[in-house]
Every structure is written in structure tokens, then in C-alpha cells.
Write a structure and sequence with these properties.
It is built from 7 helices and 7 strands, in the order H-H-H-E-H-E-E-H-H-E-H-E-E-E. By secondary structure, it is of the alpha/beta class. The strands form 3 sheets. Strands 1-2-3 form a 3-stranded mixed sheet. The protein has a two-stranded parallel ribbon with strand order 4-5. A two-stranded antiparallel sheet has the order 6-7. The longest helix has 11 residues. It starts with a helix and ends in a 9-residue tail after the last strand.
Length: 174
């Protein structure tokens, strides 16, 4: 049976997907299968006032909020513990997310095994990791990393161009 699986191109990832409840399937589960995405993810902007950050953290129930900059790039994280520590500041109600965020949050790739992510959480004594696609950009719901070979092509009018699939390795091969 194993030889047939190998011949058919069956990989460990396939096993984890098809048998997530089994012992091996759980060991092979990836972080991106466990992450909170879309409207359920607690996300605020740098300019969000702290009272609104508190509401977002409370509403989403994950004990933290991701802070994005104006280009929707991950700028930081606000764990609820950090937020509580800032509540003693007399200016708390006028502060923004950008003023109190941790600008170096722990991030991981979605392809990291869940058991490895758990080890990072335990070793770092932290409660949240942010799954990103290039160490800064938060993955969109359903988005996965994919390596493609492409070439760029002019659409006839600068600055318009498009990427088209290509296996060419040299300019001559294009």
C-alpha cells in the first residue's frame, strides 16, 4: 500500500489533510490550518483609539489585536496584558494602537507545523503568534504562498504590465 501511495505522489501533507484526527495527522498539521482569518481576526490600524482596540479584542476573544499600517502591512501586536498595563496612564483614552503596540511581534509562516508553533509559544511564554506570508504581510483569508515562474509583459501602455506563466530561464528563451 505504501508503494502505491508513493507512486501516486501521496505526501505527508496529504495524510494530514485526509486524516486530521489521527496521531500522525495531528503531528503533521500546519499552522495555517489553525489560524483565525477574515472577520474573526482581531485587526486594528495604528490610528485606532485604545477604547476601540479594547472593544475589538473583547469582541474577537483572542486576547490580542494585530496592528496594521496604512498599507495593510503588519506593524505590531497589542496583547490584552499590555493593554491592561497601559490603563494606569492618565492619557489612556487618548492613546492610539500605534502608541502602545509591540512593534516586533512573533510571526511564523503558515507552513510551519503546528507542533513547532506550539513549542515557540511555550518557549517564549506567549499566547499568540501571527501567521504571515513574508515576515510582515498578514495572509488574507484563504490565501496561500505559491512559487510561480513568470515573465512580465507590457500591455502596450506604460506603466501597465502583466505577469504571465513562463518556464524560460534566459532572455533568449522568452
Amino acid at each position: 500500500a505504501m508503494a502505491l501511495l508513493v507512486q501516486k505522489g501521496f505526501k505527508e501533507d496529504d495524510f494530514a489533510t485526509l486524516h486530521p484526527g489521527g496521531k500522525l495527522g495531528k503531528r503533521l498539521m500546519r499552522a495555517d490550518t489553525l489560524m483565525t482569518v477574515g472577520a474573526a481576526a482581531p485587526v486594528v490600524r495604528r490610528s485606532t483609539p485604545l477604547p476601540a482596540v479594547v472593544q475589538e479584542i473583547t469582541r474577537k476573544g483572542l486576547g490580542m489585536a494585530c496592528v496594521l499600517d496604512d498599507s495593510a502591512t503588519l506593524a505590531g501586536i497589542i496583547p490584552d496584558g499590555d493593554l491592561r498595563r497601559h490603563m494606569s496612564n492618565p492619557d489612556f483614552l487618548s492613546l492610539t494602537a500605534g502608541a502602545v503596540m509591540t512593534s516586533t511581534p512573533r510571526t511564523i509562516s503558515g507552513s510551519l507545523l503546528a507542533v513547532e508553533a506550539l513549542k515557540i509559544l511555550e518557549d517564549g511564554k506567549i499566547s499568540s503568534l501571527i501567521v504571515v506570508d513574508d515576515e510582515r504581510l498578514v495572509l488574507a483569508p484563504g490565501e496561500q504562498l505559491e512559487m510561480l515562474s513568470v515573465r512580465f509583459r507590457s500591455l502596450g501602455c506604460y506603466p501597465l504590465s502583466a505577469a504571465v506563466p513562463s518556464q524560460a530561464q534566459t532572455v533568449d528563451a522568452v
